[in-house]
Structures are given as structure tokens and as C-alpha cells.
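Training component of the fellowship. As part of building independent skills, the fellow (R.M.) carried out the full modelling exercise for a liganded target. The chosen ligand was adenosine-5'-triphosphate. The inputs are recorded below so that the supervisory panel can assess the work.
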Amino acid sequence: MTMTQTVLSVSDVEKNFTMHLQGGTRLNVLRNVNFEVHAGECVVLGGASGAGKSSILKMVYGNYAAAGGSIVLDAGTAGGAVDLAIADPRRVLAARRDSMGYVSQFLRCVPRVPAISVVAEPLLERGVGADEARDRAAALLTQLGIPERLWTLPPATFSGGEQQRVNIARGFIAELPMLLLDEPTASLDSRNRDVVVDLIAEKRAKGVAMLGIFHDVEVRERVADRIIDVEAFA
Ligand SMILES: Nc1ncnc2c1ncn2[C@@H]1O[C@H](COP(=O)(O)OP(=O)(O)OP(=O)(O)O)[C@@H](O)[C@H]1O
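Fellow's submitted model of the complex:
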């Protein structure tokens, strides 16, 4: 993949919410959403609270349906380009497996699974051998300052910050062409914020296309190649 290749093209996307508890009132949140994300850049969604940043990220990941327009992911993988605005759920799941990762702020804890397995799992699911997956998980946990004594324990009892770092390790471990970042540095201390900024830089150098939300102004300035003002799509 060359660095200028367009990985994500969002064209004329609209989003409305129908408020069923308010007599079906329609809330028009976004219209004429148009932007692209290229390989090797981190594009940040900016704009005031309520502008629709999370809604855009959720539509790209396929969690929210779009009311119109297209969201084409063309990651150069075997499955070809997919329009996530209209793709059936199986194609969305295939796109997630082959092309698109999502790093949120919160870890969904699976009971009784040790932290190192939680982190290694995305690699195992994609056919990486157990030893290599474990080594790479260990390296990331070390980079994120999770002490080795915690690796064999399930993260359910970890502190909030420890859980968040396990989640970041899990989100960054797979080598996918597109990565969605939903406030991955929120409530991290400055040392770990720096680690996440480094992880983003590593992904950029590998040509990964990234689209994210970062409320922390300092982090945003450090990671953003471009900031898109979502308020322009009101
Ligand atoms: N599932 C939903 N049902 C109804 N309204 C929703 C839903 N999700 C979002 N909205 C509304 O859409 C608008 C945009 O919300 P969104 O969460 O995308 O904004 P945001 O820019 O990410 O805000 P913040 O920075 O506060 O997280 C808001 O007015 C919100 O109330």
C-alpha cells in the first residue's frame, strides 16, 4: 500500500435519529459528511460536544446505519472495497476482521481470561501462531507498563487505568490497514499517553490509516495530521 492511497472515503453521509419516546421526532445530526483518510495519516474528528464525532466513528465501524451516502473502505485486502453504509452484517464483520480495528476507551472484560490472552486474541483469531502472539502481547504489555505479575490474571479486578492499557494493547496488536481511535488516551497518565502517541506514530510509519477522536488538546496536536471540523456537517 502506498502512503497516499485512499483507504476510507466518506461521501454525502447523513445521520438522523428518530426519538421514539418523543412521538417519533427526528433529530438531524449530520449531513453532507465528506472526507477521506489516506494510508499513513491520522485524521482527527474535531468540533463541539454533540457535533456528531462519535456518530461518524460508529457509522464507519458499522455500529450505526447511515441515512444516506457511502462509506467506502478500500484497504487493499482480498475482499476488495466495501461500502459500509449499505454492506450486510457479514461483510461488515469480515471488514473488521481483515481491515479495520477499533480502540475504545473501555475494556469489555471477558470473565476468567488472563490479560495476556485478552491482548493476544486478535492475533490468534487471524492465524498468528500462539508463541508469536504471546511474545507480541508481552512486548506491548511491557511497553504500556503492565507488570508481569498481572499478565496471567483476568483484567476484571485491575484498576481503571490498567484495564484501559490492556484494551489499548489489544486494539493495537493486530496489523490492520485502518484503525479507529475513540478517545484511547482519555484518563491515562502522561507517561501512558506518551506510549499511545508512540504507538500511533508506529502505525503511521507502517502506512496504517487512522481516524480518531481525541478531546485532549495536547494529544490531538501531537497525533493529528489533519483535523476535520464536524460542526461543518450540521
Ligand atoms: N443513539 C442515539 N439516539 C439518539 N440521539 C443520539 C444517539 N447517539 C447520538 N445522538 C445525538 O446525536 C448528536 C451527536 O452525538 P455524538 O455522540 O455523535 O456527538 P459527539 O460530537 O461525539 O459529542 P461528545 O464530544 O460530547 O462525545 C447528539 O445530539 C446526541 O444526543
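The panel noted the following from the submitted structure. Residues 17, 27, 29, 49-55 surround adenosine-5'-triphosphate (CB under 6 Å). The chain has a mean pLDDT of 92.
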